[in-house]
């Protein structure tokens, strides 16, 4: 349970940590250093990997496209393709993804590429697994969610209703922690209304993804006895108006 949701940040235990650190130093022993060096009979390779600034190449390629200089953009793309890979390190993989996007823009196939990607329905379990891997590797998303949820809790401490407009809600991974937190409020939970906004999916059910997210959040709210309403909107974001979200 998220029992500290309405509490302030925990106090710093610097003195206690310092005392423990002093105790640990008394028992510290310097580890035995292993000998390092080349094994006998080994040879130092004379080949050196060429270092390429992929970020600079991507920036120059994008600038060439902005200037409608297709020939120069294609030349940069060839260089980027040569040194990027979907199976390389983080920089090489990222450059490969950007190269795909830049190539689609040069060819004018960006819309078709986006439609092909969005036509594949990704199961919620698969999205959750990917999200967990992302959060484990990069804590910034987790920290931003924590600060946002704590701020909402602090500003709505006395409110009887909370209405959240979430642009790009996807699977709504941010809100279970908030739901747990407001369920602990003395006197009962407020009514939580979430307007989930996302791009429409291709096909005959454009709002299927965001509606499924609403159902998952509804079940989660029932688990913690939080009154809940969901408004699912599948439209382009620039067409959303205040009346679409529905008032509280």
TrEMBL record:
Region (VHIID): 131-196
Domain of life assignment: Eukaryota
Region (Leucine repeat II (LRII)): 212-244
Stretches with biased composition (Basic and acidic residues): 13-36
Keyword entries, A-Z: Transcription, Transcription regulation
Region described as Leucine repeat I (LRI): 52-112
Leader peptide range in chain numbering: none
InterPro entries, A to Z: TF_GRAS (IPR005202)
Residues covered by region (Disordered): 1-47
Family, similarity comment: Belongs to the GRAS family.
PANTHER family documented for this protein: OSJNBA0084A10.13 PROTEIN-RELATED
Name recorded for this polypeptide: Scarecrow-like protein 14
Organism (species): Abeliophyllum distichum
Classification of source organism: Eukaryota, Viridiplantae, Streptophyta, Embryophyta, Tracheophyta
